User: What shape does this take?
Amino acid sequence: MSNHLKPFWQKRFHFDARFGLFLLLVICVPRFLLVLNANQTGNYGPIGAIMVVSALVPFLFLHKAGRRSIGIRGTRKWGALLLAFGLGIVLALVLYAIGVGLYGDTIQNWYVYIGQSYAIPDPISPADKRILFAVMAITGMVFSPIGEEFFFRGIVHSSFATSVGEGRTSLIDSAAFALTHLAHFGLVFANGTWAFFPLPALLWVAGMFGVSLVFFRMKKWSGSLWGAICCHAGFNLAMIWSIFYLL
Assistant: This one.
């Protein structure tokens, strides 16, 4: 399957599980560390940059036919895209309900901790809050869904699938996605010190794993990565709305 790769890379890699593992190491490890650093310093600029890099990876390594083969192609299944978006909203609200039900408004609630990165002023006028929400929602619905889906459900999934098949690979890319998000919640920086909450972290990672499996199903159902992107965008929209208006 090395013909998915551009000629320059065909001399150096095969499009297989080892290539997928290479991509996970060079993208996810730096991202994990950057997120931890951002949670400590409040500088989230590099996170946007890593999302852009993730989105560009398929264009760097794959030729046009290779990119189409991993799902970077259009679809006319508009109903599937709309349903994927709605399903993403439902998943985010379910995670909100679980977090509030178990941990209320404490730092052990994943949405409470993630919400700190939004730096919502207190007090803030309703008009200013709507503007800030719109900015965060638009960026959250664009950068991470495209960057992460092109990367995890796109090039990483397809490279592993050539070695172990679609079903097993969906578990692999979902596990990688979930563990990467442990940097967003689980390892927590609060009151000037680091802490680890084992059970909340396990629940968060399990939630991210399950959500990731749904993203994959939306890709398969729509016949395009845009199904996964729409589901991911709906999830992020509802998560950000929950943080702004429900917590």
